[in-house]
Each structure stands twice: as structure tokens, then as C-alpha cells.
């Protein structure tokens, strides 16, 4: 009797998994032999994970620090100020590219290496 109960519980788990997959809807398709098969709709997830987003931010801040170190503080600030006088998109870029404490610290560390 215990074996039959375990098989029954496994069938219930399979039905629960199938029901969970079907919670996002169904999609019907016709196979090459003419049989219509109903399948659960796949959930589309973003291809950009949190790790990739964080990596992108870190690389961006490192790039800003490198630019500040390579150009110098006054030249970099002058270029960002010039960018701020442009179109809406250029003003947005100037906002993102203004010096922050992290990029300034990175520039301080890189400056002796670059000079």
C-alpha cells in the first residue's frame, strides 16, 4: 500500500508542476501529422541579469575615472560643461558624466600610473 501511495503522491506533484506551468496561459500548435497539441506558454524573462547590470555600472564608473585621470580635472570639467550646453540627450550625457566621488577616487589612483 505504501508503494501505491508514493506513486499517487508523485502523480499529484506532476499535476501541480503542470498546473504551475499552465498558469501563464496556453498555446496551441498543429504538428506535421495534423494533431493539435496544447502547451503551456513560456514565460519570457529579461536577458539582462542583475549581475550584468552591476558590471555595466562598474565599468562605466571605471571609464569615467580613467577619463578624469587622462584629461585632468579642469579639462574634464570643461568638456562636461560644454556637453551640458547641447541638446536634451547631450545634457543627459553631461549629467551622467559629471564627476562623482568614486570616479574622482579612481582618477587619483590612476593619475600616477598615467603620468
Description:
By secondary structure, the protein is mainly alpha-helical. It has two domains: 2-40, no CATH class; 50-114, no CATH class. Helices cover 69% and strands 9% of the residues. The chain is built from five helices and two strands; from the N terminus they run H-E-E-H-H-H-H. The chain has helices spanning 2-22, 50-71, 73-84, 88-97, 101-114, and strands at 26-30, 36-40. Strands 1-2 form a two-stranded antiparallel sheet. A hairpin with a 5-residue loop joins strand 1 (26-30) and strand 2 (36-40). Helix 3 (73-84) runs antiparallel to helix 4 (88-97). The longest helix has 22 residues, at 50-71. The model has no long low-confidence stretch (mean pLDDT 88).
Entry keywords:
single chain; 115 residues; mainly alpha; 2 domains; two-stranded antiparallel ribbon
Low-confidence stretches: none
**How much β-strand is present in the residues?**
5-15%
Kindly report the average pLDDT value. 88
Distance between the termini: 81 Å
Report on the biggest sheet: 2 strands, antiparallel
Order of helices and strands: HEEHHHH
The helix fraction, in percent, is 55-70%
Strand order of the largest sheet: 1-2
Question: How many structural domains?
Answer: 2
Structural class: mainly alpha
Q: How many DSSP E strands?
A: 2
What is the rounded Rg? 28 Å
**Count of helical stretches:** 5
CA-based shape: elongated
Secondary structure layout:
Layout: H1 2-22, E1 26-30, E2 36-40, H2 50-71, H3 73-84, H4 88-97, H5 101-114
